[in-house]
Amino acid sequence: MNKYRRDVEYYLYNRQQIKHSHDREEQTWSTIIENVFKRYQDTEIGKLMTLKYELKVPEQKIFEQLHIEKTTYYVWRNRLINEITLQAAYMQLIRPF
């Protein structure tokens, strides 16, 4: 498991809350999260993000709604987590080592 996944998913699940935060760190996280949502808007990965992190749909239902296999779901989710983790490291929100 990506050791930063828990933190990244916290910000994904709380996207609306951190969007309005006055905390500088949370604002930076919000910028990263919003950019990723925009990048994948109107794609299958964007649909996964909406279903998982906004609507909080159970995984099995996401597989069915997107007509994807479990492995595809995890590949896409891990891709998102890794992309956000890299951006957060670049912005010095997390320390990779």
Task: Describe the 3D structure.
The protein is an all-alpha fold. The protein has one domain. Helix content is 72%, strand content 0%. The protein has 6 helices and no strands. The chain has helices at residues 5-13, 15-19, 24-39, 44-54, 59-66, 70-90. Helix 3 packs across helix 6 (70-90). The protein is globular. The two termini are 16 Å apart. The mean pLDDT is 93.
Highlighted features:
97 residues; mainly alpha; globular
Question: Could you give a short description of this structure?
Answer:
This protein is mainly alpha-helical. It contains six helices and no strands. The protein has one domain (5-90).
Write the layout of secondary structure elements.
Layout: H1 5-13, H2 15-19, H3 24-39, H4 44-54, H5 59-66, H6 70-90
Helix pairs in contact: 3-6
Number of domains as seen in the coordinates: 1
**Based on CA inertia axes, which overall geometry fits?**
globular
Q: Kindly state the mean pLDDT as a whole number?
A: 93
Taking pLDDT < 50 over at least 5 consecutive residues as the criterion, the unreliable ranges are: none
Give the SSE string: HHHHHH
Strand content: under 5%
Helix content: over 70%
| Helix-strand makeup class | mainly alpha
Largest sheet: none
- Helix count equals 6
User: What's the β-strand tally?
Assistant: 0
Termini gap = 16 Å
